[in-house]
């Protein structure tokens, strides 16, 4: 039987009424009965003197909290009849608390200055306000030097002082009016996830990824928040965690836009999803308040005193810490949605590429507001002069920093609002607004309401009336925060609108709400480590730390309307270069057509079965180039849409069928226009195969050499594809001549079937790989190192959904977005490199006669046409594919990715210059260029997967093919023609080189 102990107790709301009882430490009901008899009331709840509620389970099990409390003879337990913790209330008849600190400012701190009546009001017409909350607000208004005590529509009782209030005092401020969660607020982030992606299958997958966010932020850089004033690493271990209570991170979509002009001025997009993070300074703020109250109780602090400076320094640090906490919460949340696995520098495709303090994958912060703080604010006196007051906000949003978000419960809308811009309206509400819906039920009541059959009730609370999902494994917290425990957000908004304090900009609807997990601080999935050794997130942490160090003090002035994140500076000349580069491919086909029409008398050498001497094939070569260019452009515009619709495996089979069908048509028709259609199908099929194969292969390889393995496989497959396709051009005409047309048709049909069968085998292999990885994850206690890094990869569960979550693809907007990526490639290249290239290439070009240079280019073109181009053209991709694998291996072993790419870019254009000046056998040209270009292939394609957002990967690959192949040779052709007539050869050739270098530079720098 538990031993009887002496316990100090006091009455909730009047902590001066203290008693002593004798009861058993392990018997909760006996304790409540003894307390009830002592105070002549029905005791139902108990708290520590700091407001922490003790539970029956903790009491009966003698939990560490209870044991420590009872072992301290000076500790006191606050007993309540069921109401929330109130603590000590200063009544009008009680002696006012003394002030602490000696002011050094030229201000009269005598409370007699407070002779004017206190302005106290509650901004509520429709919203019901509890009587207890009004009493707490009245008590607050009676504190010395308080001049304004304003209750918001979401006003509700707090621990001694009301939540949802703003209090302004002259020359004195009160830390307990701010509370323990200093800096608590909200951050609204615009993500790059599109609204059209909100489908049940995607939501379920996102929910499955959002785990482990409450564990310590597993970063390598500790103390990133600068000097820790509290001299303890305990609080830094909580950075990036949400905490309990009403804190959350919520993925939202735009339900409707009310004020379109302001909405667009904020840089917001109706088709994007948004993340709202609500959290504060965790234990750091509690420690700061506890340090103050342990020394001074609830005494106010005089302005300008040493004590004031000490508290405000810690206060500002906690506000900064809380802001950083929300940024990292957002970063962790969005990183989890992206499915980033444990990845190093070479596995960055599925992680965010930060471009700012947050900004992962195009995400940027729209606003960040603080609900709990004390700031110095000028109020307008009756005579028009300004009077600086200390404005305390406790659960109140600021109305003087631009738009704010007022969220409802997890089953209600949130409202993005614009505060009134007039000083009269702002001061009417003490420059503050409601910060949410406000509690309607006490937490104890909410815990015991609606449980019934707990399993069914819990299931009902994890899916809202909107169909949104709630992630909260703490059952008690789930019931405490149930939607019915909060007031109607519509009445809160209506009150503020009716008082002309706000206007609504937009309404947001919840999709996923993340609350604290059951075991806070413990990673429920320990094999998932998406934040360790992550290059991109390390960049984000460094940027965040820099932004924190340079963040102005919370006491400084803020602008009325926040400025949205600025776009990169516009550079019109860069856009002109990009447009010119994209047009060179079409010019290549047109110019070759004109050259052949004027100067070629012999039959064209591309000898297909249909290319008889009497057939009109004079323009076939040039027209096939045009068909190739157009097919790639079609891929850029429509490839993503088709991929979204069909998925990876189906798309692979279809593109193989398109490719082989094009080959069959080319080989077996004598009609020129049908042949051109076949060439178009063949070229389109080749381009589609590229990015489908690269996408699928990205899910097959794991470990630190992932991209190296992928390069080798792609290079080998590249050779196989080209040998089969271009080799058929060489073999079929010879079979026709030697054995007859029938055997040539049989052979072409066999090639088509074998290619199609190969694609089927490719799909089967992919299914086997993905199923094995999935089954490896489901085996208990058999999680291998391979599957550890694969947990967050999209192809584990649904490889067909690899790129289908990006609905911005499949239209002009997506193409413009990718073009902007290449625009930024050019813009990122230092001007020094451009100037060096112009001078160097110009010097080399000046050594040659321009007329002979142009003639040499035309002769090389004619020579390649005069010989059997159908057989020799295949050596370029074959040699390219083989050496790409070898060079990738070398780069993976010795590093130097950037310099390999730079070397490849200059060597490619240099060899083009040599081959144009001195006619060389076509076989030598093609093999040489294949080897040289492999230097760039070994770098560019892996880097695209790293740098480009994965929803735009197909566009980036196809556009790279277009710029890299068609545009490259188009520029060489243009250089030759201009050299024959103008003195601009070196400009054009240098542009060829620098265009490639610019793309490579942008892709390589982030990857090392």
From TrEMBL:
It is an enzyme of class 6 (ligase). It catalyses: a 3'-end 3'-phospho-ribonucleotide-RNA + a 5'-end dephospho-ribonucleoside-RNA + GTP = a ribonucleotidyl-ribonucleotide-RNA + GMP + diphosphate. Mn(2+) 2 binds at residues 278, 371. The keyword Ubl conjugation does not apply. Its cofactor is Mn(2+). The active site is at 435 (gmp-histidine intermediate). Keywords: GTP-binding, Ligase, Manganese, Membrane, Metal-binding, Nucleotide-binding, Transmembrane, Transmembrane helix. Binds 2 manganese ions per subunit. GO terms for biological process: RNA processing. The keyword Nucleotide-binding applies. It comes from the Eukaryota. It holds the Pfam family RtcB. Mn(2+) 1 binds at residues 181, 247. GO terms for molecular function: GTP binding; metal ion binding; RNA ligase (ATP) activity; RNA ligase (GTP) activity; transmembrane transporter activity. The chain crosses the membrane at residues 626-645, 652-674, 680-700, 712-732, 744-769, 835-858, 870-893, 899-916, 923-947, 953-971, 983-1001. GMP binds at residues 246-250, 371-372, 414, 435-438, 515. Its EC number is 6.5.1.8. This is 3'-phosphate/5'-hydroxy nucleic acid ligase.
